[in-house]
Design a protein that fits this description.
heterodimer; A: 213 residues; 8 helices; globular; B: 467 residues; alpha/beta; 17% strand
Chain lengths: 213, 467
């Protein structure tokens, strides 16, 4: 997994609550058996005016110039500013894959849906939680300031504005550690094989109907 | 102090506690489908890892499969490759799969309980958010992403942090014509789509106890639409009877041992919940969603709400966006909303009782002329066969419905079943998000009986008022 430590990146404001994973990456692209290549279809139905299908040359499609991702001032954004309950709906990990593939490395929102939040950490995408008031302020500053960038420092758990104002954020220690070091969960769990085997042996005695072999 | 059902299920599956407060949680049953598993199997292979416990896995193809004649396979090459990849991954790893031609094939959350492959007391996971369905019989069941699918395949465990306890009680007697779907939509309308975020929800109270096990599955299925990864309901005699004789359920002496264990799967009377909400069962009316989030829901006799009356500006903004997308005006009576398509199916509402409820409404009637397509998609091959034995297929066909093969179908429109831009659908599925049932399509979530009544009337009607 890609590490995340510290980044200063251009911010794109997506001013909507309850952005669901169907909106982040529509179903037709979930037919892929790969983890990559979803970037051109991030927010597909909002970005393009014509319907998209897998295998199309998406660079030739008609874009909606009003959608934030298509506005030239936000081109190359690495930080996505969003509202409450970001990533609700389907468990598709294609959502963080699409965001990462597009170039987003950090999301800042007041709250996230649980599965999306969890999936993000497995892919080196950092979902930062700030309170509504702080997020509101960042939206205002971002709208008002062309080229608005934020510095996100995971080690010190601080988001810093161009004006030098710092917002501290909370994050689970284990997730922070894995993200800072790019650690793979499976490798960590494999260190506890003996514990898993001991549990299974006990479970077989206590609830043998759960084992068919 | 007593413990909750969630506490008990959690404690019984802790393999080890880590210093940081996370635990390694053991998974008893892993359900696998074609959309969220290929990258996990690929990851496993690239790392040279093997499936930890083959018999804990059960696979089926459901999201991409056609619901029309399957003799010629899948026409869409991209979908076909994904389904073939699942077949190949299951073959290579020795995992049992109900493939597209198997009579037991169906929606993963329908076939699990139907086979007794998901049971009370289990931890159940699947790369699908509606895994919460299996909590209906006292299991801890939740959706996971593909990285976690790989983690379960490799270790039979997940690294998890315990959620908080929430209880939603529905007390009293439900009115006639009010179904499990109306109950869960009313709950979501009350607590919102993030109302259960960070929590495991236990549904309780006499209104919940009165539901059948299938109805309870409908309620738990949509826990995720209230933000909770897991929803659950205590075990009672209905739960135990439901599983008796199912193919994967224990038999003989083992059955008696299992039942003794299952009977303990309930919250203690003095258990403490971090959050509790109570709904009055008799106040719940048949529900219809009007917007693009399941929390945008009202009773069938209500009108489309007005964003100008909403004090929260972010919420008012979402309402305006939703009204624009749905092409609805505030104040419009729900009953004046005319429909183009009807979809009866999905992991929320495609079990035999759902089909019986819908059939009883359409029996002897005709689908309205303005309905371009009305379709019934049974949740599994076995549900379909059962419905055909009962003659339900004939009732639907004679009324003008299409009777299809099992799968996820137009709930998420990954196969050929979808809405065209601007088309409006009464759907028994679980999500009314923009584009969910097809780009530009407009979804209204309802119960099977309400969808059936809407098909006959061509617009929404109160199912309680039709004979």
């Amino acid at each position: 997994m890609e590490k995340f430590q510290k980044l200063t990146g251009l911010v794109v404001p997506l001013d909507r609550a309850n952005v669901d994973t169907d909106a982040i990456i529509p179903k037709q692209y979930l037919k892929s058996i790969k983890r990559t290549g979803f970037g051109p279809n991030l927010f597909d139905e909002w970005r393009y005016l014509d319907p998209g299908e897998p295998g199309m040359d998406h660079s030739r499609r008609r874009i909606d110039p009003d959608f934030v991702l298509n506005q030239p001032r936000y081109r190359g954004a690495q930080v996505l500013l969003a509202r409450d309950n970001f990533g609700c709906g389907s468990s598709r990990e294609h959502a963080p894959w699409a965001l990462m593939d597009y170039g987003i490395r950090v999301i800042i929102a007041p709250s996230y849906a649980d599965i999306f939040y969890n999936n993000s950490f497995k892919n080196g995408l950092l979902p930062v939680v700030l309170d509504r008031q702080a997020v509101d302020q960042l939206f205002q500053e971002c709208f008002a300031t062309p080229g608005y960038s934020l510095t996100v420092d995971l080690d010190n758990q601080i988001v810093t504005t161009p004006g030098g104002q710092g917002f501290r954020f909370e994050i689970d220690g284990f997730r922070r550690h894995c993200l800072l070091n790019g650690l793979d969960d499976i490798g960590l769990t494999m260190q506890h094989v003996a514990d898993i085997q001991a549990y299974e042996a006990r479970r077989r005695r206590e609830a043998p109907w759960l084992f068919s072999d | 102090m007593g413990t909750t059902l969630y506490d008990k299920l959690w404690d019984a599956h802790v393999v080890r506690e880590n210093a940081d407060g996370t635990v390694l949680l053991y998974i008893d049953r892993h359900l696998v489908h074609e959309v969220t598993s290929p990258q996990a199997f690929e990851g496993l292979k690239l790392a040279g890892r093997k499936v930890w416990r083959i018999d804990a896995n059960l696979a089926t193809a459901d999201h991409n499969v056609p619901t029309t004649d399957r003799v010629h396979g899948i026409a869409d090459a991209v979908s076909r490759l994904q389904v073939e990849t699942l077949d190949e991954n299951c073959r290579a790893n020795g995992i049992t799969e109900f493939d597209m031609t198997d009579p037991r094939q169906g929606i993963v959350h329908v076939i699990g309980p139907e086979q007794g492959a998901t049971l009370p007391g289990m931890t159940v996971v699947c790369g699908d958010s509606h895994t919460s369905t299996h909590g209906a019989f006292g299991a801890l069941a939740f959706g996971i992403g593909t990285s976690e699918v790989e983690h379960v395949l490799a270790t039979q465990c997940l690294i998890q942090k315990k959620a908080r306890n929430m209880r939603v009680r529905v007390e009293g007697v439900l009115g006639s014509g009010v179904t499990a779907k109306d109950v869960v939509l009313a709950i979501i309308g009350r607590i919102g789509t993030a109302g259960g975020t960070g929590h495991a929800i236990e549904f309780a109270g006499s209104g919940i106890e009165s539901l059948s096990v299938e109805g309870r599955m409908t309620v738990c299925n949509m826990a995720i639409e209230a933000g909770a990864r897991a929803g659950m309901i205590a075990v009672d005699h209905k739960t135990i009877e439901y599983f008796r004789g199912r193919p994967y359920a224990p038999k003989g002496e083992m059955w008696n041992r299992a039942v003794a264990a299952w009977q303990k799967l309930k919250s203690d009377s003095d258990a403490r919940f971090d959050k509790e909400v109570v709904l009055e069962a008799s106040a719940i009316q048949p529900q219809v969603t009007w917007g693009t989030s399941p929390e945008m829901v009202v009773a069938v006799d209500a009108v489309v709400p007005d964003p100008a009356k909403e004090s929260d500006p972010v919420k008012a903004g979402s309402m305006r966006q939703a009204l624009k997308y749905m092409d609805l005006r505030p104040g419009t009576p729900i009953r004046e909303i005319r429909l183009d398509k009807i979809f009866i199916g999905s992991c929320t509402n495609s079990r035999i009782e759902d089909l019986r409820a819908a059939a009883s409404v359409v029996r002897g009637k005709r689908v309205s002329a303005n309905i371009k397509l009305a379709m019934v998609v049974p949740g599994s091959g076995l549900v379909k066969a059962q419905a055909e034995r009962e003659g339900l297929d004939r009732i639907f066909r004679e009324a003008g419905f299409e009777w299809r093969e099992p799968g996820c179908s137009m709930c998420l429109a990954m196969n050929a079943d979808r809405l065209g831009p601007g088309e409006r659908c009464a759907s028994t599925s679980n999500r009314n998000f923009e584009g969910r049932q097809g780009a530009g399509g407009r979804t209204h979530l309802v119960s099977p009986a309400m969808a059936a009544a809407a098909a006959i009337a061509g617009r929404f009607v109160d199912v309680r008022e039709i004979g």
